[in-house]
Design brief:
Length: 221
């Protein structure tokens, strides 16, 4: 199940954007200037070592799990997110998120189940330090066309694309006994910033990735 939608689940059960191949476009000087401004505008706490809860929230936001500020169910060292669906015939998705000893890496275990069928499990690993490019767009159409990027701190930015080789890797198995799939990797995560609350969560997460994870995509060239 690709990232970004369960983030992972390209099924959109958590409401994230579309999948795609590796995108390595940056906005040049405009982007790097915006990245510096963004880091300077973040609260002072962003310059401190994030807590475990903040790191889990960062991963959840970037993976599309914490939609609309949804709070997870805490389970020992992990957070569990559930899809919210009213249609009884729709599939249910539950995802457990754990942050490893290296806080910028996280593991996910997702169970997708259709009514009256065995669940399919997806094991995933995301490494935020692998982000090598960050591009913001003012519309979904521009994101799809990969054109007209805007500064990351612009109020016009409504979509952010994070890219990096092997950013999110996963493998899938069915509890019905079907053969497991080999590991697949996605080089992209899509981050929506459609309203003020989404922008606040996204910018907080991006500030942590830039400052604490030292992702190359945020370094000035």
């Amino acid at each position: 199940m690709p990232a970004g939608r369960i983030a992972a689940g390209g099924s959109g059960l958590y409401g994230a954007g579309r999948n795609g191949g590796t995108m390595r476009r940056t906005a040049g000087t405009m982007f790097w200037a915006a990245a510096i401004v963004l880091a300077c505008r973040m609260p002072a706490a962003a310059q401190e070592t994030p807590t475990d809860a903040e790191m889990r929230q960062t991963h959840a936001v970037l993976l599309g799990l914490a939609q609309d500020g949804a709070l997870p169910e805490r389970d020992n060292s992990g957070d569990i997110y559930y899809s919210v669906v009213e249609n009884p015939d729709a599939p249910r998705l539950a995802t457990r998120l754990e942050v490893s000893g290296a806080p910028c890496r996280a593991r996910t275990i997702s169970a997708l189940q259709f009514p009256d069928k065995w669940a399919t499990l997806t094991l995933g690993l995301v490494d935020l330090a692998r982000i090598t490019s960050v591009t913001a767009y003012a519309s979904v159409e521009d994101m799809i066309a990969e054109t007209n990027p805007v500064p990351l701190d612009s109020e016009e930015a409504v979509q952010v694309v994070l890219a990096g080789e092997g950013l999110y890797c996963s493998s899938r198995m069915s509890l019905s006994g079907e053969a497991a799939t080999g590991e697949t990797c996605s080089d992209r995560l899509d981050l929506p910033m459609m309203d003020a609350e989404q922008k606040a969560r996204a910018r907080r997460a991006l500030a942590i990735v830039a400052d604490f994870c030292k992702a190359p995509g945020f370094r000035r060239r």
